[in-house]
Amino acid sequence: MKLSLIACALIGCLLAAGLAHADDNVDQLTPMPLGKVIKVLLAPADPDLPWSMGAGADSSIKWLSQGVQDEGCGAYATCRRGEARISVGGKELKNLRQKIEPVSWEIFIHSSMPAKFPPQVISLQPHCDTVECEFSIDHELKSAGFKVDPVCRNEAMGQAVSGARISMPGKIAYLAYSTGHGSGGDSNSLDIFLTNGPAPKNLCQIE
């Protein structure tokens, strides 16, 4: 079930606090195309470690968590946090600080179950503060070799969510692409539901 706005705000604050230092070392990260990031996050790097997606040699994600956490996960029981530089269409979002810097992206893997069970959802959110966090995904997914089948769409309260089933040989998931319309402009985020069964009932839910 989607969280209330208050709960989401609380989790957002926790994420921001946990990644407050992220941009300090953003120049040291290697950019990865969004399609590749999604691809490496859809399967564990080690089949014996179900939370190990994005931890293989083909990933440039910097993991901030020491393994799987059961504290500091907001409303969730377990989580894992990381950051990455991600390009979309060959370009990165940029922040203006003392100099122009690439935007780091928050990666938040979480579950309502204990760590012995596989994770349930992966959230990707650009960490913008001086630019709009707006990006597109269709071309990125297809360029990475994904088949994209639209499932649902919902619009309410200045938000829109499009849900799709994404697949390639050996990889199946559901993706919710969210757009928020606010006074600071539009912003996008992704939630990847790690299930190869029917589409989650809350795939396009807005609360």
Overview features:
mainly beta
| Unreliable segments of 5+ consecutive residues | 1-22
Distance between the termini: 10 Å
Give Rg in angstroms: 16 Å
Helix fraction, binned, reads 10-25%
Main sheet summary: 10 strands, mixed
- Residues in β-strands, percent: 35-45%
Structural class of the secondary structure composition?
mainly beta
Q: Give the helix tally.
A: 3
Shape: globular
Would you list the SSEs in sequence order as H and E?
HEHEEEEEEEHEEEE
Number of strands: 12
Report on this structure:
The chain has 207 residues and is mainly beta. 14% of the residues lie in helices and 38% in strands. It is built from three helices and twelve strands, in the order H-E-H-E-E-E-E-E-E-E-H-E-E-E-E. The protein has helices at 5-18, 34-41, 138-143; strands at 32-33, 62-63, 78-88, 91-92, 94-96, 100-102, 104-111, 121-126, 147-156, 159-168, 171-182, 185-193. Strands 1, 2, 3, 4, 7, 8, 9, 10, 11 and 12 form a ten-stranded mixed β-sheet that branches. The chain has a two-stranded antiparallel ribbon with strand order 5-6. Strand 9 and strand 10 form a beta hairpin. It is globular. The protein starts with a helix and ends in a 14-residue tail after the last strand. Residues 1-22 form the signal peptide. Keywords: Signal.
